[in-house]
Specification:
The protein has about 850 residues and is of the alpha+beta class. The protein has 4 domains: about 120 residues, Topoisomerase II, domain 5 (Alpha-Beta Complex), CATH 3.90.199; about 80 residues, 2-Layer Sandwich (Gyrase A, domain 2); about 110 residues, Topoisomerase, domain 3 (Orthogonal Bundle); about 300 residues, Neuraminidase (6 Propeller), CATH 2.120.10.90. The strands form 12 sheets. A 4-stranded mixed beta sheet has the order 14-9-8-17. It has a 4-stranded antiparallel beta sheet with strand order 10-11-13-12, with helices on one face. A 4-stranded antiparallel beta sheet has the order 21-18-19-24, with no helix packed on it. Helix 3 packs across helix 4 and helix 17 crosses helix 18. The longest helix has about 40 residues. The protein is elongated. It starts with 12 loop residues before the first helix and ends with a strand. The N terminus is likely disordered.
Length: about 850
């Protein structure tokens, strides 16, 4: 309708009234139509739409920042509290609760109420369930719950916490929809519910998407904010690491997470947890046991099946869902020739196993105003609400205490003159007369006089009188304490802090979602990893683990040691070395490639466990054999260490600039070109000005200057470092820096014999010679297996092929000449042999 230029004049009242016919009806057949006023349709539509939008925003879709609840959830919890359905009560039919909510507070669809009730009882939807359900409440596969007449429910412990102190004038109440009852505008909520369980909702023109968080972390952040009201979101991230989803998973990129929380909106990358497991037949399988939040498991399984059908994932033999009530388990079996890590990367890229959760932290402030909130603002509004609740509760308790004190004062006054009180009552005509006489004679109020008349005769006993006097002392002390809290905002905050600490102790559940921060970001995962020395073991079949050196106690030389790993299926320990958790581990294979992985990604395990398959961490094929491993620390990035020197079994040696190994791809880089029948034996970091010593299996050794090794590119093969006799091979290489020329070379044989010999006893020679003798070998000693430079004050750890470990001191091993046999260091079982040693 086009807008009129001038407002029409109102017609006289009598003209506006509808004319009636003789039978009493209006001419148009309607009665009492009232007044008709013209109105612009655009204005009418605009106002009606705004009213509708605000109704949806305030009364349905958005949570209140104070208690984190939408009206329907608040009404469900309050109605359950009225019904006495506490966490230790008997279960009640869900239909009873739905009916109570509909009849008293929420006159909408019963399906909407039941759906909200069901979600509060799902452990995969809420981090801390507010309702405890019994029966079929749906599944993570999006299976619908059973009908409300079949399921039962009651409040969970966390749900009951939300109602704590609600009957102590802590919140405002308003009329319900038909003004027959009162309902709370907000719950007292000692729990920071909006952050703990998050919220999802679509309103008109806006939507909210708040993830769940860990209670312990949230309480710690809230306590910090009480002490530091100006704290920013970035500061609160020393406590809250990010979302903590009920379904677990991994979140990435903490820099972006902090940015999203500071602005109140932004993406968080979430990834399901998957492990690559080696099977007994040599094949591999990917086991998924955690999926991203809000991902339908059945849909995910369907996506995986489609990828397999379209052959986008190669080498898959079978895929199945083995999930049960104990948890999620999706298994993808791979063929022997498959690359497990590549298959897993394809799953992350092409399915919901990896997806983004988009934060949009909109909530109602003051119950009416929708606002995008940062993490600090959201916690700030919650703490403001808690301080108001505590203050109102304290005032309520203070009023009750004063009322009780008033009665006790009257009782104490009269009990001191009990004979006169009894005489006064006996002489009175009736109760009202007695009340009037008591007030007049003892200067009592109506309340005090009424209390005297209500007092039983048993209260006149001496002990009962003493109880009243004791209670009066207690109530006075309580009034003083409560008055102090009411007058002091600092004491109110102290009460809030105390209650938050109690909640931490009540719900000490650890974080489920792991925070992983990529190194490309300014805040890397390394910043969260404690720096410590670890022992890393790799077996012949590719199982790797790390343990603390403290797992092995120091023993005297000549002992048998303790079990370091249980050898299974003909597997045995092949590599054993010391590293720092922040080191980068370079892994060299027989294909001539080098791979890299952070040491902290190697799983921490017990002393006797075998660890996890290396293919969980590197894109390494089954045909690749690990020949050498080198830890590369931060100090190695300095100017001191400039080269990597590599020695092969056949005596070839090569020097390459360390700079060429800085940026390694996950698929690896060529490190050395190996000739047929040759393999890498040792890799060392050098300064470029050191000396090199090669040691062979048949106890030959050669020492020469590193300058004799010409620097080469990564793809080069190297030069002759040592001329070997027939049947001999290089077993180790050491780099001798200037400060090590007065040290010792410690050697160990396969049958556990060893010794220390001074470095000075090994004269310098030219590269390519046959070298000189380093030990006298016999059938009793066996061949040389390892050589290491030591000062003499270190602790040493030896490990055998079958996993026996001996920790001892270097000074306990005799210092002998080059051509001697040595002493027994480690006693071995029949068929066992020493494979390696490291120094701490």
């Amino acid at each position: 309708m086009p807008k009129s230029k001038s407002k029409p004049e109102p017609e006289p009242e009598e003209n506006n009234k509808a004319k009636k016919t003789d039978n009493g009806d209006n001419e148009n057949g309607l009665e009492n139509i009232g007044y008709v006023k013209p109105r612009e349709i655009c204005e009418e539509m605009k106002e009606s739409y705004i009213d509708y939008a605000m109704s949806v925003i305030v009364s349905r879709a958005l949570p209140d920042v104070r208690d984190g609840l939408k009206p329907v959830h608040r009404r469900i919890l309050y109605a359950m509290g009225e019904e006495g359905l506490y966490y230790n009560a008997r279960f009640r039919k869900s239909a009873t609760v739905v009916g109570a909510v509909l009849g008293r507070y929420h006159p909408h669809s019963d399906a909407a109420v039941y759906d909200s009730l069901v979600r509060m009882a799902q452990d995969f939807s809420l981090r801390y369930m507010l309702v405890k359900g019994q029966g079929n409440f749906g599944s993570i596969d999006a299976d619908p719950p059973a009908a409300q007449r079949y399921t039962e429910c009651r409040l969970s412990r966390a749900g009951q916490e939300m109602l704590r102190d609600i009957n102590r004038d802590t919140v405002d109440f308003i009329d319900n929809y038909d003004s027959t009852r009162k309902e709370p505008t907000v719950l007292p909520s000692p729990l920071p519910q909006l952050l703990l369980n998050g919220s999802l909702g679509i309103a008109v023109g806006m939507a909210t998407s708040i993830p769940p968080h860990n209670l312990v972390e949230t309480c710690d952040a809230a306590i910090h904010l009480i002490d530091n009201p100006e704290a920013t979101t970035e500061e609160l991230f020393q406590f809250i690491k990010g979302p903590d989803f009920p379904t677990g998973g991994i979140i990435f990129n903490q820099k972006e997470i902090i940015s999203a929380y500071a602005q109140g909106k932004g993406p968080v990358l979430v990834q399901g947890k998957a492990d690559i497991v080696e099977e007994k037949n040599g094949g591999w399988k990917i086991v998924i046991n955690e999926i991203p939040y809000q991902v339908n498991k059945a849909t995910l399984v369907g996506q995986i099946a489609k990828l397999i059908q379209e052959k986008k994932i190669k080498g898959v033999k079978d895929a199945r869902d083995e999930s049960d009530r104990d948890g999620i388990r999706i298994v993808i079996e791979l063929k022997k020739e498959a690359f497990p890590q590549k298959a897993l990367n394809c799953l992350y890229k092409s399915t919901d196993l990896q997806k983004k959760f988009h934060l949009n932290m909109i909530a109602l402030v003051d119950g009416i105003q929708p606002k995008v909130l940062s993490l600090s603002e959201m916690l700030g509004y919650f703490l403001k609400h808690r301080q108001e609740v505590v203050l109102r509760r304290t005032k309520f308790d203070l009023t009750k205490a004063k009322e009780r004190e008033h009665i006790l004062l009257g009782l104490a006054k009269c009990l001191a003159k009990i004979d006169q009180v009894i005489e006064t009552i006996k002489k009175s005509k009736n109760r009202d007369d007695a009340k009037s006489n008591l007030k007049k004679k003892f200067q009592l109020t109506d309340i005090q006089a009424e209390a005297i008349l209500e007092t039983k005769l048993s209260a006149l006993a001496r002990l009962e009188i003493q109880k009243i006097e004791d209670e009066l002392k207690e109530i006075k002390a309580k009034i003083e304490e409560l008055s102090g809290i009411v007058k002091s905002p600092a004491k109110v905050k102290a009460v809030v802090k105390k209650e938050l600490k109690e909640l931490k102790e009540t719900y000490p559940e650890p974080r489920r979602t792991k925070v992983y921060v990529k190194k490309a970001e300014e805040i890397s995962e390394e910043d969260l990893v404690p720096e410590e020395e670890v022992l890393i073991t790799l077996t012949n079949k590719g199982y790797i683990k790390r343990v603390s050196p403290s797992s092995y106690k120091i023993q005297k030389r000549g002992g048998k040691g303790i079990m370091g790993i249980k050898a299974q299926d003909d597997d045995f320990v092949e590599h054993f070395f010391l590293a720092n958790t922040l080191d980068k581990i370079l892994v060299f294979t027989d294909s001539g490639k080098v791979f890299a992985m952070p040491a902290y990604e190697i799983p921490s395990a017990t002393r006797i466990s075998k660890g996890r398959a290396l293919v969980n961490f590197l894109e390494i094929s089954q045909e690749d054999k690990v020949l050498a491993i080198l830890p590369l620390g931060k100090k190695d990035d300095s100017e001191q260490m400039k080269y990597l020197v590599m020695a092969t079994k056949n005596g070839i040696i090569k020097r390459t600039a360390l700079e060429e190994f800085r940026n390694l791809r996950s698929s690896g880089l060529i490190a050395i070109r190996l000739k047929k029948g040759d393999s890498l034996r040792s890799v060392k970091k050098t300064s470029g000005k050191s000396e090199t010593i090669l040691v062979s299996k048949q106890a030959q050794s050669i020492r020469f200057k590193e300058e004799q090794i010409r620097p080469m590119q990564r793809s080069a093969a190297g030069n002759k470092g040592m001329n070997l006799k027939k049947g001999d091979e290089v077993i180790g290489m050491e780099a001798i820096e200037k400060d090590q020329v007065k040290d010792y070379i410690l050697i160990i044989t396969s049958k556990g014999y060893g010794k220390r010999s001074g470095v000075s006893s090994y004269r310098q020679q030219s590269r390519g010679g046959t070298g000189i003798m380093t030990a006298k070998l016999t059938a009793k000693t066996g061949d040389l297996v390892k050589a290491e430079i030591v000062k003499g004050d270190e602790e040493l750890i030896f490990i055998s092929r079958n996993g026996q470990v001996l920790r001892t001191t270097a000074k306990g091993i005799s210092a002998l000449g080059r051509a001697t046999q040595g002493v027994r260091i480690m006693r071995l079982d029949e068929g066992d042999s020493v494979v390696s040693l490291i120094k701490l």
